[in-house]
Amino acid sequence: MEKNRYTLFNAFKDLFKLSGNSKKQYIIGTIFMVLYVITAMLYTTYNSKLIANIISFQFDKAINLLFISAGIRFFSITVCHNLWRQIVIRAEKNITENIQKKVYKKVLNMSISSFEEVKSGKVLTTLKAAESDIIRNVTELLLESAYLVTSFIMLIVIYILDYKIGLGVTLICTISLILFKIQLNKSKSLLNNEFENTDKYTTLVNETVRGIREVKALNLKNSCFNLFSTRIEDMTMARRKRRSLSKIVNTLKWTVRIIGDVIIFLYIIFQIKIGILDVETAMIIITYMTTVIDDVFHRIIEHDFGISEITANMKRITEVLDDKKIKKSHLAKNHMLLKMEI
């Protein structure tokens, strides 16, 4: 069962194969994205030192740090960020168009008997998946991953400055990631269930519209409406479960964070009070600590739907594009018809 499990890694691999010639352009844009993230981390560090020196009345040092921070910020935004967005947006557009063309061409080449196995609802939702922001979600995920690498470096610095604070930050992040893992696994299952119900709903609407004369002639309006109501309720219930799960996990992780923050800040105040930590070091620790925890919360945990969506949509697209699978369904149908004739 685990062997056939479609993971985020499989989704990335399939998306890379379907990207065509635009993959090189996308990689170049991603390099500028990494440079943007690195310069953003440097800016955060120097800006933190700047504020600490202003508070400590070290104005000469503060002025030097001000110009360094401004220079880093200027290079980060005007060069790295602008080139990254310009190149990647163009690549995203080309990749999305390439996937749409492949899916539509595949649908046009499918045999009539294949549509008995692949219902019209699934064909329509797969075409919609091809039009979705899969590659844009991937870009966001790569950006968040780059930020997480810089956060890991910040965490190492915190351990060097004060290992006790490092342990506290690690504990908050670990508990949050465990909750995220539980949420992600459950969210994937609920999202697949939601897509299946959407397929049934879309198939019903599509077939009803196409056969509206037969529905009225055979007086099937009540039956169709009852089935429609059932499909709507199933689809809504799947969405409600996924949102409820998200709310429960968010409440738990924020409770952990608030308690952890209070304990760590009390410790930092005490260390400054007895003279073990100076203001500049304390400011860097607070800035890094906040960044690390924020990255775990907002760059990983709150992207569970994006990860689930990338995986689910790519799985649907590759299922339709999989020649062997459709051929197998086609042959199976012909075999059944042959047995009935005999």
Relevant terms:
342 residues; mainly alpha; ABC transporter transmembrane region fold; 12 helices; 89% helix; elongated; disordered C terminus
Describe the protein's architecture and organization.
It is a single chain. The chain is mostly helical and 342 residues long. 89% of the residues lie in helices and 0% in strands. It has 12 helices and no strands. It is elongated and about 85 Å long.
Overview in brief:
The chain is mostly helical and 342 residues long. Helices cover 89% and strands 0% of the residues. The two termini are 36 Å apart.
Can you lay out the helices and strands and say which pair or pack?
Elements: H1 8-18, H2 22-55, H3 59-109, H4 114-117, H5 120-131, H6 134-161, H7 163-210, H8 212-217, H9 221-273, H10 279-300, H11 304-321, H12 323-341
Largest sheet: none
CATH topology-level fold name: ABC transporter transmembrane region fold
Q: Specify the helix fraction band.
A: over 70%
Shape designation: elongated
CATH architecture: Up-down Bundle
* CATH class type: Mainly Alpha
Number of domains: 1
Give the percentage of residues in beta strands.
under 5%
Give Rg in angstroms. 27 Å
Order of helices and strands: HHHHHHHHHHHH
Question: Please, how many helices?
Answer: 12
Low-pLDDT residue intervals, each spanning 5 or more residues: 327-342
